[in-house]
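User: Please fill in residues for this 234-position structure.
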């Protein structure tokens, strides 16, 4: 009888983890494994298996899983526990509508407070996106670019909600950017957004952000349509 595959077998843990870093370390390791596909959609993750792998109690494991659930990377299913969430769910279009509201507000609050250093950081992420060929890194750079423009917004709860949406998009981009052929187009959008931001033109910046996110809506719509076409009987 074949041995049952352990979904955690390709996750490496180096040395004991200090107790005060246990939750954040587990969260980061699992997030990376989900984002790069080592933990595939639908994979069940057991608390006790994680506790044994990291050499910790189940308490920091539960806390880490709760954080990943809040970020949309895990779903908690009755009698099955934590399960890696689908790349795109049926409410993903609603998520983009919410993202526009949240990110537009953060941009309005942050933009007047941005410095030349902030603009230089944002430009640096664009330059990195122009030459980066590793799709797993492109998603991260895209998220960091947007967060740079929002980071001076004083409402930290707003920024936390935005980060959740950006992480969801990062995961989707990692797996589907090549098929969507969005790479260069995204940088044109980013450059226009940065240009308006540097001119302190809030309304033009928000309008450019809206156009940029609308392209994401179109990509999600296309992806969901292609998935339905693959269903049996179609």
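Assistant: Residues filled in for all 234 positions:
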């Amino acid at each position: 009888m074949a041995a049952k595959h352990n979904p955690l077998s390709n996750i490496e843990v180096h040395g004991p983890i200090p107790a005060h870093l246990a939750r954040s370390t587990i969260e980061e390791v699992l997030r990376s494994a989900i984002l790069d596909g080592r933990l595939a959609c639908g994979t069940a993750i057991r608390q006790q298996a994680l506790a044994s792998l990291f050499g910790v109690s189940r308490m920091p494991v539960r806390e880490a899983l709760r954080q990943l659930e809040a970020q949309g990377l895990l779903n908690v299913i009755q009698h099955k526990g934590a399960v890696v969430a689908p790349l795109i769910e049926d409410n993903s279009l609603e998520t983009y509508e919410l993202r526009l509201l949240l990110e537009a507000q953060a941009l309005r609050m942050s933009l007047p407070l941005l410095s030349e250093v902030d603009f230089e950081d944002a430009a640096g992420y664009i330059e990195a996106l122009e030459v980066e060929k590793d799709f797993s890194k492109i998603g991260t750079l895209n998220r960091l670019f947007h967060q740079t423009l929002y980071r001076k917004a004083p409402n930290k709860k707003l920024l936390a909600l935005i980060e959740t949406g950006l992480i969801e998009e990062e995961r989707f981009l990692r797996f589907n950017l090549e098929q969507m052929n969005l790479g260069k187009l995204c940088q044109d959008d980013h450059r226009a957004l940065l240009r308006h931001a540097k001119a302190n033109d809030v309304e033009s910046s928000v309008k450019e952000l809206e156009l940029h996110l609308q392209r994401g809506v179109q990509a999600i719509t296309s992806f969901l349509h292609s998935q339905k076409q693959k269903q049996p009987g179609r």
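For context: Strands lie at 44-45, 74-77, 81-84.
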